[in-house]
Specification:
The chain is mainly alpha-helical. Helices cover 68% and strands 0% of the residues. It contains four helices and no strands. The longest helix has 17 residues.
Amino acid sequence: MSRLDAPAPEGIPAAARETLDAGGAQFGFVPNMLKTLASNPAVLDVVTSLQTSLSRVLDARTRHTIALAVSD
């Protein structure tokens, strides 16, 4: 059971739409984590900035392992 719900598409603030569109273009779909964070555009921007920074520091295998652990 989820403790947080992703907002409906019409409930996503305009400030978060651009970031979600970029995530959708990168992954081919918008991950539920990003949809859920979209309810607060500031938090969404912080998380995506952190992910971008980590992509420069960590190799793809380590990032994938972290993503799997977090998604569980």
